[in-house]
Design a protein that fits this description.
The complex is a heterodimer of chains A (83) and B (566). Chain A has 83 residues and is mainly α. Chain A has three helices and no strands. Chain A starts with a helix and ends with a helix. Chain B is α/β, with parallel strands linked by helices and 566 residues long. In chain B, the strands form six sheets. Chain B has a nine-stranded mixed beta sheet with strand order 2-1-11-10-12-13-14-15-16, sandwiched between helices. In chain B, strands 4-3-5-6-7 form a five-stranded parallel beta sheet. In chain B, β3, α6 and β4 form a beta-alpha-beta unit. In chain B, α7 packs across α8. Chain B is globular. The chains are: A mainly alpha (83), B alpha/beta (566).
């Protein structure tokens, strides 16, 4: 899990935040409700997870709630990796 | 008590002059939307009434009365004036839903400038296109978004000031100015600019099939339509707490997230947060929201979360629900009746119309899936797409068109009068949507009449996406089309042929998606990319998008042998 969280956080910072963003984000930062990732951008984040971890996340599981923090996303990845 | 007459009563003898009279406006007098939304409400004795209940996504809350809003908007306007900003200049508001966004729009209008609100998720290319086209001289933004402005500022010689509303002592760059609105001494001497009916007010950019987005130029007189449609269709009453979850970067967020409700003296609640069903219901429950104007995409996302979640919150204050953006499917209307005990009332209008034009009027029978009937004072028809005369047979598909005689129709496209004239056929303003009309006069959406992609209620132009795609080093050619989507109605799909030396791969697919998301916006990002060897073209080499679109929708392509290249 820790490994997933680290990689996902790194990706979110790289892809969804500006270079010199002064706001720090953590594993618990609200990504969707906080406006860092919107419901459209979730599609590219989902694609990243599927490519990197060789999993398929059904649309029904890719809800804004499930993508609302790095912690929750990592749990989702873990669930599909173990499936 | 409802302020809304029945539909039959409302259409009988309706005259826009009655609305002017209700607002105390006489032809030739000054009319300023900023004044009508603040000073006039205070003069009516409602200065102590809450105008804005604002909540940030972290739970911070602020409430402003109409009198506080009047003073803050005057103070904001006076500060801009003292900075050297002159009436008529285009002032862009590029920020999240902070109170400064709402007050900024009204302040800009009060000083006689043209407000240009832009969706804060726009990337640097989308931003540059719109600022360059409008000749914008001031951008008002926040720290979170100023970095995107910094990337393009050197290519905008006419941009004089970049105002940062939350600089909070952080270092700023050349042309940037900090504004701490709440710390400024209140302006006591500000005089609202005497704009008149035809003075430009708001510039909203909207996409078409060809070319870059066009700046739809609204005028202060649009208030007449926005006031009465908000009052009647949203059924606004003095004690209401109203929530419009649209962003003011789009027309719904200004016509009905600023002008309509505040011109009626209504308390608005604003939540500066992305989508989260639980948070949204909690927001409605805590603020005892009575009227909610939402969008089909949001409603379908709520449907996915289930009616059980609704039942966990006390939403008993909700009295009236409306929707706009793209057609509201019958399933969503039926679900809302089950989940909330009342249906969402669909409304149809566009950036160019400025106000709702076809609506499910309160009290009217809601036919799930229909956009309703024309608002009083609006003459709407379905036209034959060749002759541009009203279709003769009931149920016959044609294009929605309106007689151009209501107050809030835009006056032109900024720097593009020819494009605006092209919207008129045979004396009708043609909307670009296809529909049918049933025996009761209800309009039913069929589809778009062009290549514009309606995703999540926002129109995205294929040309802008294709132009941006060419900026990616791997892309040789591309076509962007709509693909059906269960939540967003349509999403962007791109067909891409690659330059020699590049091979299709999952990583390249994701790289191109992110490239467009950052350059343009998340809305414009292709949610699917299909790598192809060739694209269908006419003999003159023009890409035929409709062939690709038809395949996505499972529709017949038709005979294209006469136009297609071999």
């Amino acid at each position: 899990m820790e490994e997933y969280k680290k990689a996902i956080l790194e990706y979110v910072i790289k892809e969804y935040m500006e270079d010199d963003e002064d706001e720090e984000i953590t594993y618990d930062t609200e990504l969707i409700s906080g406006g860092i990732v919107d419901s459209f951008s979730m599609v590219s984040l989902k694609r990243f997870l599927e490519n990197k971890y060789d999993i398929q996340i059904p649309d029904a599981d890719a809800s804004p709630e499930a993508f609302d923090s790095v912690e929750k996303i990592a749990a989702l990845v873990d669930r599909f990796k173990q499936a | 008590m409802s302020n809304t007459p029945t539909y039959e009563e409302a259409i009988k003898g309706f005259d826009w002059a009655q609305v002017e009279e209700e607002l105390g406006y006489r032809k030739g007098d000054p009319i300023n939307i900023g004044w009508y939304c603040t000073d006039r409400i205070c003069e009516m004795g409602l200065g102590d009434k809450p105008a804005l209940i604002w909540e940030g996504f972290k739970g911070d809350q602020r409430t402003y009365t109409f009198d506080e809003m009047r003073i803050l908007t005057d103070t904001f306007a006076a500060w801009l004036r003292d900075l050297g900003v002159e009436p008529g200049e285009r002032v862009c508001l590029f920020m999240d839903r902070l109170p400064e966004l709402y007050f900024g729009v009204l302040a800009v209008l009060k000083m006689g400038c043209i407000a240009q609100p832009l969706f804060s998720a726009f990337g640097e290319d989308s931003l540059w296109t719109r600022l360059d086209n409008a000749g914008t001289s001031v951008v008002i933004t926040q720290r979170k978004h100023v970095k995107k402005v910094r990337k393009i500022v050197d290519r905008l010689p006419g941009l004089k000031h970049v105002i940062v509303v939350d600089a909070d002592g952080k270092p700023l760059k050349e042309r940037e100015v900090a504004l701490a609105l709440h710390d400024l001494p209140p302006a006591e001497d500000f005089v609202v600019h005497p704009t008149t009916a035809e003075s430009p007010s708001i510039l909203h950019y909207t996409s078409g099939t060809t070319g870059q987005p066009k700046g739809a130029q609204h005028v202060h007189y649009s208030l007449i339509s926005q006031y009465i449609t908000a009052k009647w269709v949203l059924d606004l009453r003095p004690d209401d707490v109203y929530w419009c979850n649209a962003d003011p970067g789009w027309v719904t967020g200004t016509s009905y997230g600023i002008i309509g409700p505040w011109a009626n003296g209504i308390t608005q609640a604003v939540l500066d947060s992305g989508f989260n069903a639980d948070k949204w219901y909690d927001f409605i429950a805590r603020n005892r929201i009575t009227v909610w104007y939402s969008a089909p995409t949001a409603i379908r996302l709520l449907m996915k979360e289930g009616a059980e979640l609704v039942a966990k919150h006390d939403l008993s204050a909700l009295r009236h629900l409306c929707s706009v953006g793209e057609p509201l499917n019958a399933e969503a209307v039926i679900w809302s009746e089950e989940a909330f005990g009342k249906p969402f009332h669909d409304t149809f209008w566009q950036t160019e119309t400025g106000c709702m034009v076809i609506t499910n009027f309160p009290g009217m029978q809601v036919k799930p899936g229909s956009m309703g009937r024309p608002f009083p004072g609006i003459t709407a028809a379905v036209l034959d797409p060749v002759e541009f005369t009203p279709v003769e047979k009931q149920g016959q598909v044609g294009v929605i068109a309106l007689r151009p005689d209501w107050p809030s129709l835009i006056r032109t496209y900024w720097n593009n009068e020819e494009g605006f004239k092209g919207k008129f056929k045979n004396g009708w303003f043609v909307c670009g949507d296809q529909a049918t009309i049933d025996a009761d006069g209800y309009f039913w959406f069929v589809g778009r009449d062009d290549d514009v992609i309606n995703t999540g209620g926002h129109l995205v132009g294929p040309f802008e996406i294709e132009s941006a795609l060419l900026g990616h080093p791997a892309v040789a050619e591309s076509a962007a089309v709509a693909k059906p989507d269960p939540v967003n109605m349509e999403v962007v799909k791109a067909f891409v042929s690659l330059k020699p030396g590049f091979e299709p791969s999952a990583d390249l697919d994701l790289e191109i998606m992110n490239f467009i998301r950052k350059k343009l916006s998340p809305l414009a990002m292709p949610q699917e990319i299909e790598f192809v060897e060739d694209l269908p073209k006419t003999r003159s080499g023009k890409i035929i998008r409709r062939v690709l679109r038809a395949k996505e929708f499972g529709e017949p392509v038709g005979d294209i042998s006469t136009i297609m290249n071999d």
